[in-house]
Amino acid sequence: MKTFPLLTLLTLIPLLGGGVTLLASSRPKLAHRIALVASLLALAVAALLWAAFDTRQAGWQFVERLAWVPSLGIDYHLGIDGLGLLMVLLSALIVPFAMLASWKIENNPKLHFALMLFLEAGLFGTFTALNFFHWFIYWELGLIPAFFLIKIWGGPRRTRAANQFFIYTLAGSMAMLLAFLAIYAATGLFDFGQLAELARKGGLDNALFAKLGGSFFKSKETLAAVIFLGVFLGFAVKAPLMPFHTWLPSAYAEAPTGTSMLLTGAMSKMGVYGFLRILLPLFPAQMRAMQTPLLCLAVATIVFSAAAALAQRDLKRMVAYSSINHVGYCLLGIFAAVQLTGDTAAWTTEKAAALNGVMLQMFNHGLTASALFYFVGLIEQRSGGLRGLNDFGGLRKAAPVFCGLMGITLFASLGLPGLNGFVSEFLIFKGSLPLVGWAAAVSTLGLLITAIFLLAILQQVFSGPVRNRWAGWKDLTTGERLTIAPVIALMFVFGICPQILIRVANPAALAILKLF
Amino acid sequence: MNSSLDWMIALVPEEIVIVSALAVLVLDFAILRRRTLAGRAAAVGAAACLGCVAAMVWIARGQDYQAGEMLALTPLTQFLKMVLLALTLVVAVISFGARFSRHIGEYFALLLLATAGLMLLISSENLLMIFIALELLSLPLYVLTAFDKSSAASAEAALKYFLFGSVAAAFTLFGISLLYGLTGDLQLGGIAEKLNTQPVEPICYVALVMTLAGFAFKVAAAPMHFWAPDVYEGAPAPIACFIASGSKVASFFVLARIIVDGFGPLRGSAAWEDFRAGWMPLLAVLAVLSMVAGNLAALVQTSVKRLLAYSAIAHGGYALLAFFGNSRQMLPALFFYVITYSLTVLGAFAVVAVVENSGRRDRLADWAGLGRRAPLLSACMFVFMLSLAGIPPLSGFFGKFYVFTAAVAGTPHLGMLWLVIVAVAASAISLYYYLQVLKEIYAAEPAADAKPFRPPHAALLSIALLAGLVIALGCAPGWLLAKLSVVLNTSVFRL
Amino acid sequence: MLAWTIYISLLGAAVLVLLPPESRRAARITALFTALAGLAAALCGAAQYERHVPSGAVADLVNFSWIADLGIHFHLAADGVSITLVLLTGIAAVAGVLFSWNVERRTREFFALYLALIGGVYGVFLSFDLFLLFVFYEIAIIPKYFLIAVWGSTRREYGAMKLALYSLVGSAMVLIGLIAAYVVSGAHSFDLIELAKYPFPVAFQNWAFLLVFVGFAVLAGLWPFHTWAPTGHVAAPTAASMLLAGVVMKLGAYGALRVAMTLFPDGLRTWQNEIALLAVIGIVYGATVALVQRDIKFVIGYSSVSHMGFVLLGLMTLSQIGLSGAVMQMFSHGIIAGLLFAVVGRMVYDRTHTRDLTELQPMNLSALAPFAAVTFVVAGAASMGLPGFSGFIAELQVLAGAWAVFPRLTILAGAGILVGIAFMVRVWIKAFFAENDAKAAPIQIEPISMAERAGAFVLLGTTVLIGLWPGLLLNLITPTLHSPLFQPLWKGGQP
């Protein structure tokens, strides 16, 4: 049955919108409006997808499949499950949010908003593609607009930050590309589903060794491990996982506010998505074999990034490190879920919990982190460029609404029950503590440290005596309130009624578990 | 038997040419004494041209073919005479603007006498006749080379030419007399028969070497080439034209006749696996030396005339490759090459002549920016240079291609491929120096005091015609090839 | 229809020569119109071919006897491979004219030479008679020389002469091989299809293949005969560099495929491993040397050598997928290299008068010329072989084919890709995105003109189009690789 190609439409809207924005005349705010309209249109389609999504069905929905270059195993293959849907919705929410945050851009706004739209197209494409060929095209499509956004509109050290971001991400992507070329040479397949099928029976390793082994690799395991590392690198840089994270603090700090929101809200989720969608199904044995080192890395990510955030004096950098920390929880959950427990159903609950937690954390963290960056951006605007931790004080008196809403966001990031962050972190720990107890235990340190520095922000920035120069601090304007209100609302909604998300995520989690 | 009257009628073209020579002399001495040089040149030149045209018309209309002891008139010889007369015509047209001598009547007379020598040379059937015709050709040329009395180079060139030429003539005479002694016959046909039946004695080879040495001089093949650069450079440009074109055609023709008809049995072989003494290995050696020496020396020249001289030596080498072809292809390849080459080199030297007449010297630097000052002339030079280099679709390319193919096909098992490799390599290198000339013309900027340049119309017209012919024969060589095969079918060659 | 590409281009060149000298606008418009007409003819021809000849066999366009004596025909024909390259030429020609819109000096001669070169290139891709192919191949040499010598930049006369001589020496090698093949086959025909049917003895094929292949591959940048490429590219003006790297290098690869590989498949098998090794050395060497260059044009020149190594590697795989990749890479690299040279030469060098990375670093080009920066980034991404651009499909196919036959070499080639990424990123950062002193005074440069944007869109659009719909070209190439002409290549193995 031919269904309406909603997913293609979803990706096309921001692409075309970007083109139209570029061609728009230079009337003030025209580009802004066109871009916002395009992103809202995309949001509408995403909402439509959400409504039409059937949570009882476990497999792919809204599938589109066309033969493209059959001789090379390349198909135009789209589809989403619960995970994809969550990510698509997240992206659709974050982009208009980021655009509103960038409303005051004066320097070449056409290009700025067009790049944002192209980035959105890249996001949608990545989360819906099921064949490596166009998945990779969209993956890279996300890279170049981000680079230019940082390079052209960023802070004082933007060039170095942008270059570092670019080189790291590109290196990771190239490793991934080469690994997939090797996989293609061995199996002739580019389709994720078919490759996952092959891997489930252990066929992928065999095929790799049969075609590529021989002169260089003596054992099947070594060869498969090398290919695994290639793909792993691509996602590890993106997520990021320590020690591949060094590009992130500078990039997030130097990027303009809207871009930082996009980077942390949606793009970092591309990395985690890759772990779930590609790495895990294709290389379950390798992930199991390397579980311990991977867990160490995840734990290191959680703890050290939190510690680093604590040591920062720049608010934006603090939030950047905190971002790394939160993504670390996702990776902890994933690595916990690969724990070899045999075929007993007993552990399935824990694993499902962990994976559900991961997916929810991806969504929730996306919202809260981008909101945090939004607020920091507002602070920066009102203070004329300052954003140090010690530059402020007692803002609560001058701008109570501002502080109140930012406080809510901070608490959501902290994981306060009632707000969305709590559910996801709780689920992750619920799942991983029984599975990989030591790792989860050490990770709680991260929770503790996070609490410390987030409260520190509250204290240093909002409480205390008001400095004279901030006496005229303006509170949130109507526009800003309208912008942030939906996000805050969502934080509460998903905190109090997480079933809305779990209903969608759980089938996907179970499906992933079945793969290995 | 052919009576003398028949012969008188058959030889009318030659008679016309000789009579024109005398008439030109009379015209100049008796009638035009008091006119200006330009006027005299025009009148006398016109008379010379008229003579050539008349001779061509007579050949074209008639079919008087006969063969005798001394001379033979066949379709091939008549065709070649047409070509030679056309070449002379062009040389005469170019000489109109010549300012190097006051003795303009003698100039044209000598030119016509040399032409007569050429025509007799083509028709010769008898060794002595060949020698006489050669002398009739050479002596006027020696004098003509010295015609520019204001230039020491001209006199020196003429002296060198004369000395070299005399020595070469001596070689030739020695060889011919040896041949006569061996066979007791002076006629080419008779010599061939006798050598076929007699056992080959070593002294035949001596005769062969002597004769070849003499002819190698005439075609400027290394190592008998040392006269060529000085003569081409020192002689007045129209004379250099003539030596490079007409004289070459006739010399190759006679060389072919003597080698193929006279020394037929002494063929030998120069194939890679099978080296036997004879004229083939000798010609191979000559060819290699000419191609290599000519091209290498041309690479370093700064004078256009010397450059063309060395290139002429090299082209002589390429032409010699035709001798290795099989009986069906040898002569068409040779004549196609030599005819198209002579057209091209005539055009090139004509351009040099025109440029010299306008006051420039022939240093490369003096040609700078010519492309903008004289576009049509430069375009013609472009055609000539590239044709000499062997770039398609010009006639030089097809000529070389045909000669190379004939050489490879002529010997079984690709025996002569080595020689063709040398030739192709040499030809590739030659592009360098032809591009040097073209680079000066088109890429360099003209000197600040350069004046615009008006070549005389008649000369420009004939040069353009030659360029057109070069292009046409390159794009559609089939016409000339067909004509050649027709005339060769009824030729005197016994192959 | 396809043959009109040749005629239109040559006609355009002739028209341009006849225009008055100072008519720049007329010259540009004529040239653009001619290039567009050629492209239109190519597209129509391609569509017709796909509709009427789905089997991929050779479709005759023009065939008449030209020089009957040697069995030479004026035979133009096309199959899928030819048409792919004809399309490449059309697109590159249009883009080149657009990027040369600003040539002020001797505009009409520039475009006349340019169109003559294009006409010659079209001719090579459409010739199915070996003599005719050779003629067009050589015709292309002279315009190249003058384009570089007159309008070029760094050491232009040296670069031009080096290019011309390398090309000519390469074609000399081919000529010898062709003549030898003609003679050995005794077929008295130069027709490609006829000669391909002849079973040449293996001993002959062994050296003939090497000679002809290397002769063509010199122009394709086979290591170690590639040294003309960096010098030539750097010396040439932008449009000539685009054509040189984009199209002319493909002449060599096409010749190697069409002539050497089709006529001598057994000889090919003898040398398969050695040539593949040289190809991979070229890939790695080109990329590595590009990594340390200071002049951007040298970087791209060496990267061209590296990319052509992929073509040659693909040819040596003797598998259908490998050859398909080689042809795709010919097309893809042609477009991408053209784009890279256009940005560096036209957008950057014409404005900043420097191509040195150290000098460009402080200029903050990404802010001054954002269009150039974006175009260069996208072109560089395409050059790296990222999916979404044409290079990915091509390199994927080549590597897939090569893996089956040369696994170790394929890994080396993969390493070459990595180095390729590195040098491109290096150039991006140094030339466009360097950290610079915000206090430095910004230099004034003129904005990117409409013509440049149009040219960039043409090339970018093509590489993205083929990257996303490779079927457009694969539908032409794949059936042809199954056609009878290519059967001998797959002998003994699966395609």
Question: How would you characterize the overall build of this protein?
Answer:
The complex is a heterotrimer of chains A (516), B (495) and C (495). In chain A, strand 1 (61-69) and strand 2 (74-80) form a beta hairpin. Chain A has helices spanning 6-23, 30-52, 82-101, 109-128, 132-153, 158-187, 192-200, 203-212, 220-238, 248-254, 257-282, 284-289, 291-311, 315-337, 348-383, 395-398, 400-414, 420-435, 437-462, 478-496, 499-514; strands at residues 61-69, 74-80. The mean pLDDT of chain A is 86. Chain A starts with 5 loop residues before the first helix and ends with a helix. With 516 residues, chain A is mainly α. Helices cover 74% and strands 2% of the residues of chain B. Chain B has helices at 4-10, 12-31, 37-61, 75-95, 104-123, 127-145, 152-183, 188-197, 202-219, 227-234, 237-262, 279-298, 304-320, 330-357, 370-373, 375-389, 395-410, 417-443, 457-475, 478-489, and strands spanning 66-67, 72-73, 269-270, 275-276. Chain C is mainly alpha-helical. Helix content of chain C is 75%, strand content 3%. Chain C contains 21 helices and 2 strands. Chain C starts with a helix and ends in a 14-residue tail after the last helix. The A-C interface holds A 68-69, 71-72, 111, 133-134, 136-137, 140-141, 144, 148, 151-152, 159-160, 162-163, 166-167, 170, 174, 177-178, 181, 184-185, 211-212, 214-216 and C 321, 366-367, 370, 374, 377-378, 381, 386-388, 393, 396-397, 399-400, 403, 407-408, 411, 414, 417-418, 421, 425, 429, 433-436, 470-471, 474, 478.
What is the element layout, followed by pairings?
The complex is a heterotrimer of chains A (516), B (495) and C (495).
Chain A: H1 6-23, H2 30-52, E1 61-69, E2 74-80, H3 82-101, H4 109-128, H5 132-153, H6 158-187, H7 192-200, H8 203-212, H9 220-238, H10 248-254, H11 257-282, H12 284-289, H13 291-311, H14 315-337, H15 348-383, H16 395-398, H17 400-414, H18 420-435, H19 437-462, H20 478-496, H21 499-514
Antiparallel strand pairs in A: 1-2
Chain B: H1 4-10, H2 12-31, H3 37-61, E1 66-67, E2 72-73, H4 75-95, H5 104-123, H6 127-145, H7 152-183, H8 188-197, H9 202-219, H10 227-234, H11 237-262, E3 269-270, E4 275-276, H12 279-298, H13 304-320, H14 330-357, H15 370-373, H16 375-389, H17 395-410, H18 417-443, H19 457-475, H20 478-489
Helix pairs in contact in B: 2-3, 2-5, 3-4, 3-5, 4-5, 4-11, 4-14, 5-6, 5-11, 6-7, 6-11, 7-9, 7-10, 8-11, 9-11, 10-11, 10-13, 11-14, 12-13, 12-18, 13-14, 13-18, 14-16, 14-17, 14-19, 14-20, 16-18, 16-19, 17-19
Chain C: H1 3-18, H2 24-52, E1 59-67, E2 72-78, H3 80-99, H4 107-126, H5 130-139, H6 141-151, H7 156-185, H8 192-197, H9 202-219, H10 228-235, H11 238-263, H12 265-291, H13 296-316, H14 320-352, H15 357-360, H16 365-368, H17 370-384, H18 390-405, H19 407-432, H20 450-468, H21 471-481
Antiparallel strand pairs in C: 1-2
Helix pairs in contact in C: 1-2, 1-4, 2-3, 2-4, 3-4, 3-11, 3-14, 3-20, 3-21, 4-5, 4-6, 4-11, 5-7, 6-7, 7-9, 7-10, 9-11, 9-12, 10-11, 10-13, 11-13, 11-14, 12-13, 12-19, 13-14, 13-18, 13-19, 14-17, 14-18, 14-20, 14-21, 17-19, 17-20, 18-19, 18-20
